[in-house]
Amino acid sequence: MVIETSAGEQPFKLSAVSMVIYPSTTLHRVAPVESGMRVAAVGWARSYVRSAENREILFDLETLRRDLFTREGKTGAFDFLSKCSANLLRLWAED
């Protein structure tokens, strides 16, 4: 598997039971097998939040929320952050 990145081609040679996950808009190609056999499973995942920028904000908020809970437990700040994150997800999610 070779994926095109902004830095050029990025080759992947994975061990058994490994996977590469990348956006469906990414250019890629399959390199020839030099030894052994290629076995592949292909699938797609869909986010209900269309915007990559909004998904990044939700990811950052969730990272902060988990960190806050690990350090301080369930607090008012944790609950408020959880509410804001859930409201943004409801606002940005599409059917």
TrEMBL record:
A single GO molecular function term of this UniProt record: 2-oxoglutarate-dependent dioxygenase activity
Domain of life: Bacteria
UniProt KW Amino-acid biosynthesis keyword: no
Sorted UniProt keywords: Plasmid
GO biological process: DNA damage response; intracellular iron ion homeostasis
Database matches in InterPro entries: PKHD_hydroxylase
Protein name, as recorded: PKHD-type hydroxylase
Organism: Methylobacterium currus
Upper lineage: Bacteria, Pseudomonadati, Pseudomonadota, Alphaproteobacteria, Hyphomicrobiales
